Prior knowledge:
With 303 residues, the protein is α+β, with helices and mostly antiparallel strands. It folds into three domains: 4-85, Winged helix-like DNA-binding domain superfamily/Winged helix DNA-binding domain (Arc Repressor Mutant, subunit A, Orthogonal Bundle), CATH 1.10.10.10; 92-159 and 267-301, D-Maltodextrin-Binding Protein, domain 2; 163-263, 3-Layer(aba) Sandwich (D-Maltodextrin-Binding Protein, domain 2), CATH 3.40.190.290. The chain has helices spanning 4-16, 19-25, 30-44, 60-85, 100-117, 169-175, 224-232, 242-251, 281-294, and strands at 49-51, 56-58, 92-98, 121-127, 141-146, 154-160, 163-167, 190-192, 202-206, 209-213, 219-221, 238-241, 255-257, 262-263, 268-273.
Amino acid sequence: MERLAEMMTFAKVVETKSFSEAARVLATSKSLVSKQVSNLESALGVRLLHRTTRRMSLTEIGAAYYEHCVRIAHEIDAAGETVSQLQVEPRGVLRITSPVIFASLHLAPALRTFLLRHEQVEVELNASDRVVDIVDEGYDLAIRITDHPTATMVARKIAPVRWVTCASPEYLKRNGVPGTPQDLNNHQCLVYQGIPALRSGWRYRVGNKEVTLQISGRCRVNSSEVLLQMALDGMGIVLFPTYVLGPLLKSGRLKQILPEYVANADTSLYATYLPNRYMQPKVRAFIDHLLDHFGPEPHWDKF
C-alpha cells in the first residue's frame, strides 16, 4: 500500500472533478496533487485521466481503478470512526428510502418503536418505488426487495420475502384455476411495473426446474394499491410478496394458486448502505432494530 496517499488523492480529484478543488479539500497545493496523480500513473504504467486545458475525464482503466480507490477510502473512513463512534448514542437525521407499500404496511410501525427507543434520532423517509441512488441523493440507507443486491453496497438481509400468485374467488370461478405456470398465458395477469424483481418476468421453480414467463397482461400499473384493488375486483391474477398479501389471503378475499411452485426464489428484504455508514450509530441501531422487529419468521407469513 505504498501508493495509498496517491490513490486517495486520485480519488479526491475524480470526486471533486478538479485538481484545484481536490487541493483545497486536501489542504495542499494543486501542483502536489497533480504530481501525486502523475506519479501514480507512472507507477501503474497507465493513464488514469484524460486532461485538457478545459476539462478532465476518466479513462476506461481510470474508471475501474477509481471504484477500487473509493472502496478503500470507505474502509479507511470506517476504521477511523470505529473507536470513536461505537459507544456514541444514536443521534441526528436518518435518511431512508423504501418501497411505498412496504413503508406503509410494515416500516411505519417499525419506525414508531425505533423513535420511541432513540429520542435523539430524527427520520426522513422517502417512500418511493423508484430505485433511489442513495449516494447521489444523500441517503443513509435503502430498503430493497431483491434477489440481487447491488454489488457496490453492503446488503444486510433483514427477512426472507415469499411470493404468492393469487386472484379473487370471483375471477377463479369465472375463468378457472391455472394448474401450471404456463397456464397463466391463457389468463388475464395484472402486471406491476414498480418491483424490480418482476422486470425479468415471473419466475417459478418446482424441484430443480425453473421457468420464467414474460407476462404481458392487458393491465400494467405502477401503483401496488391500484393493482391490488383490481385483483380484488376480479380483474385478473397478481404475483405479490406475502408482506402485501398476508391479510387478504387470511381473510379469503384473495386465493393462492400454484402453491406447489416457488415464485421468485431467493428474494429477500435487505437494508443496503455504503460500507462506512454502518459505523454511524443511528444506522447501526436502525438495522439492529429491524432485525429484532421482523425476526427470522416475519409476521406477514403467518396466514
